[in-house]
Amino acid sequence: MARATRLEVATAKGPGELVLERPSGVPRAVLLLGHGAGGGVDARDLLAARDTALASGLLVALFTQPYRVAGRRAPAPAAQLDDAWLDAVRAVRGRRGLRRLPLVVGGRSSGARVACRTATAAGAVAVVALAFPVHPPGRPERSRLPELDGAGVPALVVQGERDPFGLPPDAPGRRVVVVPGADHALRRGEGLVTQALPTFLDDVLGT
Question: What positions does the domain KANL3/Tex30 alpha/beta hydrolase-like occupy (predicted)?
Answer without folding.
Answer: 28-168
